[in-house]
Amino acid sequence: MAFARLSSIVAIALAATQVANAGLTKRVTCSTGQTTANAKCCALFPVVDFIQQNLFDGGECGEEAHSALRLSFHDAIGFSIHGGKGGGADGSILAFNQTETAFHANGGIDDITDRQFTVWQQTDLSAGDFVHLAAAIGTGNCPGAPRLQFMFGRPAPVAAAPDLTVPEPTDSVTSILARFADAGFSAAEAVALLSSHSVAAADVVDPTIPGTPFDSTAGTFDTQVFLEVLLKGTAFPGNGSQPGEVLSPLAGEMRLQSDFLISQDARTACLWQAMINDQNRMMTQFKAAMAKLQTLGQKGLTDCSDVVPVPAPFAGPIKFPASFSQADVQIACHTARFPTIQTVAGPAPTVAPVPGS
Ligand code: HEM
């Protein structure tokens, strides 16, 4: 869809809004028929459809949806509560992509900035609104995901974020938690944000095996990743051991060193274990931490969360992959009982790569 056409749909949507009073909460009915809490948000419904069609293959939880979530993190984390870093969730990673994609921790992210840039240019959104709306939509395409908040109205970013703000899989837990704390996040919030690795794969950790997932259900936003990161590793999925990678329990799966160390560290092990098979906990904590992440450094935004499509639920419960059981778990939390989990029948699986990587 061309820019002119999209703009005219947006204009019609805005021109024909009417206010309705639904009980105690004032709602606005847009010309498109959708309702929202604020007339400003009407302009976003056509953009949501445009992003679904042009970025996410009509609403899939595929490679682009995963990357859009990762991009929102790499954009926003360039921030410090003490000042002196970047503008936070401001879209600088998209607007100043030439600078930020050159940072080592942003390896592979040029794929998604390239994809998003042309789609962004066909909307009227600021770079920050685009990056963080796309992340909310893309994440919501994954069954089991919470419906993420979307706050509207970020100004254009003023500069690229500085280098060395994005954690690397080779970093120690102390350094990762310190970086999160510097951006305003507790250890519990850091673990909650790592729920994102439930819908994730690596392209550049081992470039010989692009699209290698972090769990066996990369198309579902479930707690499987918290379980599988704890399973004893036996092999590397690709070209031997790479920096930032530790032995993986399943063929075709990659285990990040940082995820594994966080699952084992005394500061985070019980937070990690508590996520396992507790879909509600993961959804609630991830949603709250993302709401904070996606508004870092921003103020005066309008709540347009109701433009974000409602994700499909995850039926659950999660299971051990075939041939695995509690005997294979490297339990590091000794103050809480490990949940009882069934095992999928059959031989040990080989996890398929995420297509399109
Ligand atoms: C300790 C902090 C973190 C580290 C060290 C880390 C590291 C990584 C690495 C190395 C990859 C694979 C990159 C590649 O080879 O293509 C990756 C992928 C990913 N990360 Fe993280 N990450 C962290 C936190 C987060 C957070 C907080 C989020 C989101 C809130 C996130 C979302 C993702 C997603 C969705 C992917 C998959 C992208 C795709 O499949 O295209 N990560 N991460």
TrEMBL record:
Its EC number is 1.11.1.-. Transmembrane segments: none annotated. Ca(2+) 2 binds at residues 198, 215, 217, 222. InterPro entries: Ccp1-like (IPR044831), Haem_peroxidase (IPR002016), Haem_peroxidase_sf (IPR010255), Ligninase (IPR001621), Ligninase_C (IPR024589), Peroxidases_AS (IPR019794), Peroxidases_heam-ligand_BS (IPR019793). This is Peroxidase. Ca(2+) 1 binds at residues 75, 88, 90, 92. Residues 1-22 form the signal peptide. The record marks 70 as: Transition state stabilizer. Heme b binds at residue 197. Keywords: Calcium, Disulfide bond, Glycoprotein, Heme, Hydrogen peroxide, Iron, Metal-binding, Oxidoreductase, Peroxidase, Secreted, Signal. Its main location: secreted. It is found in: Secreted. GO terms for molecular function: heme binding; metal ion binding; peroxidase activity. It comes from Pholiota conissans. PROSITE patterns: PEROXIDASE_1 (PS00435), PEROXIDASE_2 (PS00436), PEROXIDASE_4 (PS50873). It holds the Pfam family peroxidase. GO terms for cellular component: extracellular region. The lineage of its organism: Eukaryota, Fungi, Dikarya, Basidiomycota, Agaricomycotina. The active site is at residue 74. Its cofactor is Ca(2+); heme b. Residues 125-337 form the Plant heme peroxidase family profile domain. Binds 2 calcium ions per subunit. Binds 1 heme b (iron(II)-protoporphyrin IX) group per subunit. Disulfide bonds join 30-42, 41-304, 61-142, 270-333.
